[in-house]
Amino acid sequence: MPRFCRPSLPLVRLALPLLSVPAIAQPTPPAPAPSASAVQQVEVQAARPEDLEARRRSTASKIVVGRDEIERYGDSTLGELLKRLPGVTLDGRSGRGGNIRMRGMGGGYTQILLDGESVRGGLSLDQLDPDQVERIEIIRAPTAETGARAIAGTINVITREGYRKRLNDLKLGLGTEAGRWGGNVSWSRDDRIDEDLTYSTSVSVWNAQRHDAGSTETSATGEQWLEDSQSDGHRRGVWSNARLQWKLPGGDQLMLMPSAMVAGNDSLRRSQLQVLRDDNGDAPRYATSLTDSDFTHRMLRLNGQWRQNLASGGRIEWRGGVGLNTSQSLSQRQEFKADGQLRRTLDERSDSRERSQHLNAKFSQLLDGDHQLVAGLELEGAQRNEERQTLQDGVPQLRTLGTELSARSLRTAAYVQDEFNLNPNWALSGGLRWEGIATRGQDIGGADPENRSSVWTPLLHAVWKPDPKGRDQLRISVTRSYKAPQLGQLMALPNLSNRYPVPGDNTPTSPDRAGNPNLQPELATGLDVAIERYLPSGGLLSANLFHRRISGLMRTLTTLETVPWSAQPRWVARPANVGNAWTTGLELEARGSLRSWWPDAPAVDLRANASLFRSQVDGVPGPDNRLDQQPGATLNAGADWRIAGTPLTVGASVNWTPGYATRLDERQWVSQNRKQSVDAYLLWQIAPWARLRLSAANLAAEDALNRSTSFGETSLSRNETYLSLRSQLELKL
Known about the structure:
Layout: H1 11-19, H2 22-25, H3 49-57, E1 62-65, H4 67-71, H5 78-82, E2 88-90, E3 100-102, E4 110-114, E5 117-118, E6 133-139, E7 153-159, E8 167-177, E9 180-192, E10 197-220, E11 223-247, E12 253-278, E13 288-309, E14 315-336, E15 342-367, E16 371-392, E17 395-396, E18 404-421, E19 426-440, E20 450-464, E21 472-483, H6 487-490, E22 512-513, E23 522-534, E24 540-561, E25 570-593, E26 603-617, E27 633-642, E28 648-657, E29 660-665, E30 668-672, E31 675-687, E32 690-697, E33 704-710, E34 713-719, E35 724-732
Parallel strand pairs: 4-7, 22-25
Antiparallel strand pairs: 1-6, 2-3, 4-5, 6-7, 8-9, 8-35, 9-10, 10-11, 10-34, 11-12, 12-13, 13-14, 14-15, 15-16, 16-17, 16-18, 18-19, 19-20, 20-21, 21-23, 23-24, 24-25, 25-26, 26-27, 27-28, 28-31, 29-30, 30-33, 31-32, 32-35, 33-34
């Protein structure tokens, strides 16, 4: 066990009081049961009419995903849901989530918003239960109102909104993967206290076991070894959020939105090393290893909103909030010789604490000529403290440097946006946004490097309809956007190589890792052109072409440095601005009812989307000098069938990403094989107040293969993926 104290996570004690509230004990009476001869019909559409209408009316290209699509497959994580949406990919293997990417670009290129606010503190959308989400907005080009930190686009996740009708829903889920079991419980309630006060609240609890297995074969000049590993662990968490809404005199509204989350995972990894060749004596010197790790993330957030109506017919909206994110990571790695004797023990502990505050003011006014004017001011601050400690056989590795560093940032923004109809054929939205960012990191030498940058981002969106009453339209967007460094990238506290501890040297294939307090933002100029046709039956055909030109590209470089934590020079990997790049792509989408083309067909809704991506990094020789981990293409296809005369709906989807290679510089390449996922579900409407959802994910499970070459050393990793089965009972109490 690690020498550090493991944090407790009393989820059961935390969850039981939340699930035993009187609202469940006193449910609203269900609707009268139908007669035995009545058959409950399930209405499922490729997209709700209101979602398509919101997309059609938006001047900026926006995709709206409502509750029907969110809950269709009974996904346990939001990432598994997002992978089916146009242009969205995950960089993890099937069934294991990963960083969310739009147009193959992640790591800050995709702006992730939660209820319109930035996601901070390392919070992953994979930690958010889909039952907590009301809708998802995918905005392909930045706007003055939503922000310019969106080179690839914006994904805005809207949690359960305010009171619309009385609601008291309970969902019980059970699933299995690789012989391991997991379950989840979620409860949502919307109600009215009096005529002026309504509330919405929801709670989700999950706990699941997990198994992973894989192998890594590493070869270099005169060396070759193979490591097989098995890992068992489990993930657990509680998420709760609420919304209180008051109606004030004069039509004003006041809302408070608290939320809290505790999530974590632990694992025990066993590996066995086999040295196949060792001519140089540099191969690893252990036979087996045991790694025990634990990670816990806690989040508290309180947001408020005051909507004030003006006598002129306009409105001022004040939004503010505070947040706290903490995380703790503990691990202990023990290496053993072939005779079972302990060779080395490595203990690592990392604690981070990030506080954030924001205050926004937005003014909106409908002017003459159908002009919709919006102007706003934004202020956002964040402070991050990080402490890291590494012990080898009980001896601290960074004793002379200290173990704690901090960084802070202050972002200010002002914008103005005008949306209007130039004539019956043309709708325009023009905006201008200014953002300034001041960051202060902390160097391990005691200095506090400070960076200030600002960017003006003019933004223009236009929609042209050849026939104002028709269903065809053309979109054009010309934008400027940027990508700012994350606070963690500015912190220079090193993470030492596990294979080569100090005070000795290391190799470029096992470098230390550290941040860069002098990192600057990336800037991008973009063009989007889209053609859309909205079908009479509620379907859609769309083609979207985009291009981005990026300057100040950030990439991780590995160089030999003279460092204060070792008497000998060591190889260090840290982010840096390396030059320019461009990316372009084509996104196709189609959805609609089979009966639109074949009137006598079953009630089947079809949907498909495909994307092609190309990119190039200047200064890196080709081929494959693409943006990091951007695939060449991605494809999604799915269908839903409402079986006539029965209470059943079935559906399936296919997600496919081809394999690709990326050249990082003259001496480093990475590649991965294709990734595919086949999912299916069955929905049974048992009664008006109850339905059962059965789903299967990753039906065509195949191993994930990744290859990397760095400074003459090549590693081939193979990791298993698994079929996942889930059942969920949904009750309206």
